[in-house]
Amino acid sequence: MTARAADRARYDRATAHLDAPFAIVDLEAFDANADDLVRRAGGKPVRVASKSVRCRALLERVLARDGFAGVMSFTLAESLWLARSGFDDVLLAYPSADRARYAELAADPKLAAAVTVMVDDPAQLDLIDASRAGGGEVVRVCLELDTSLKLLGGRVRIGARRSPLHSPAQVAEFARAVARRPGFRVVGIMAYEGHVAGVGDAVAGRPLRSRAVRLMQNAARRELAERRAAVVRAVRAVVPDLEYVNGGGTGSVQHTAAEEAVTEVAAGSGLYVPRLFDDYTSFSGRPAALFALPVVRRPGVGVVTVLGGGYPASGAPGADRLPAPYLPEGLRYDPQEGAGEVQTPLLGSPADDLLIGDRVWFRHAKAGELCERFDALHLVEGDAVTATVPTYRGEGHTFL
Prior knowledge:
Largest sheet: 9 strands, mixed
Oligomer: single chain
């Protein structure tokens, strides 16, 4: 029996009392992935990206481990909810236009001490000030650096379109503008190199593309390390008591942590290890989050139909954004139908061994987005479900 077949048997035994569809997290794999992130971070703290977890119980579990410190959130409403739930170091990774929540933040000393918001434009500061509604608390802010690699004099850009602040001079000038403005305090710098941390460099069947990605990423790492160090020096000249410099992501933890200028790294997807992280040479993890769909039809030889399954991930549309049939091994989508909203046909010889009511186990393409489809995660240890915990959705929150 292969390791994957053994996992399938174990998951089937553990969840025999449950009716699919449902989602699980294998805690042994989750904890092993957490240990690997800490190892790769080389002594620098790992800030957990909540959008890749979306479950308070699992955020608490990982933050209780040595090597992890703080949360990187994805909306202001989520940030305040986490702070009220006891998380005392929450960095909002994206700018917000949520005026009502800014008013809450500026009026509450506990929230203002626990939550840091992301800015990269004076207009964002204007919006926060206009939202204060009399609240006088100082708002902690983090400055985001654009990490994109610019070639040929800027005519070619590689990387996400995020912050407009690219050069050390631009970031330092914005830091001065914030420092001069009452009601704000610069506490950090964030630089997320998504074109390094979030792009696989060993895509099966694409050797030339994979080599090109590796060459690009090597060049991007070198350029960003030099520029990030210069940015930090320039900002520290304005804000000597800067608390942290955050960088990285699951796919680049060890490279980013090696930079002297970086004080902490961010990661979250590496805890669940969704299918998009199968194509990396920098690390390998164990799939920890899966969902099960029931077989409801057997249309013919070599085909079964499962209930549901149309759970595409965000990003540029493509086959790589679909969940992947994982267990039993050897199933694939019908190219004429793909993953359906209500039913999904699956092809392959393993279909002939599946009966009505059996489960097919899938891996989502991205990490936390799985939790937008399920209100609970069943936590598996060995061959038993030892706890069932709510996702954000299960607690009544769909933040975005």
